Prior knowledge:
With 226 residues, the protein is an alpha/beta fold. The chain has one domain: 3-Layer(aba) Sandwich (Rossmann fold), CATH 3.40.50. It has helices spanning 16-26, 68-78, 88-96, 152-160, 213-224; strands spanning 4-9, 29-34, 45-48, 83-86, 102-104, 112-120, 136-143, 147-149, 164-168, 180-184, 190-193. Strands 2-1-3-4-11-10-9-6-7 form a 9-stranded mixed sheet, sandwiched between helices. A two-stranded antiparallel ribbon has the order 5-8. Helix 1 links the parallel strand 1 and strand 2. Helix 1 packs across helix 5 (213-224). It starts with a strand and ends with a helix.
Amino acid sequence: MTARIGVITFPGTLDDRDTQRAVRVAGAEAVPLWHRDKDLKQVDAVVLPGGFSYGDYLRAGAISRFSPVMETVIEQAKAGMPVLGICNGFQVLTETHLLPGAMLRNNHLHFICRDQKLRVENAETSWTVDYTSGQEISIPLKNIDGRYVADDRTFDMLEAEGRVAFRYLDGNPNGSLRDIAGITNEAGNVVGLMPHPEHAVEPLIGTGRTDGLGFFTSILKKLVNA
């Protein structure tokens, strides 16, 4: 029986279908989850996809954080369930405090959409075991509130504990401090990043490469070997 990966849809989510497809391409079963439903339908892991949930009103991810489904996600994540937040999903994870820090408007104040080179800094999380530390990958990036910030104490903690998962290469696209593109929690089951791996899983679409597929094969491998 294959792993079941839940993909949450909030009002304003726009990458849920792409994420479901990426899950299927990796060989797992994609399970749609609705934001108003606390039931996670016995999934093995959850993805919070990209988009503009609730129109990014108040603050990106601030309203979604209070959706009924997030009560269960927070509870299960603290119990060890793997959770991946992509772009808006990363913003939601910071709002829930499952991941530290916050996301602010890009330093150039413009929406940006481009292929983005990243360096894998931590290849030991539930979502990165199919990569190698130091590996360089390229996946699409698209955001306007993508500038990751935190205080110096938090940054020093993330660096010391190896919790920086990805770093921007060849130019920082949004002003994220210390070039951080993605981070993980202490246990390594919760990962958030701004770029979109679900758009780079098949050679005919996205970047024309499959550099993002590793996220989804990683969690499949992690669950099968659990």
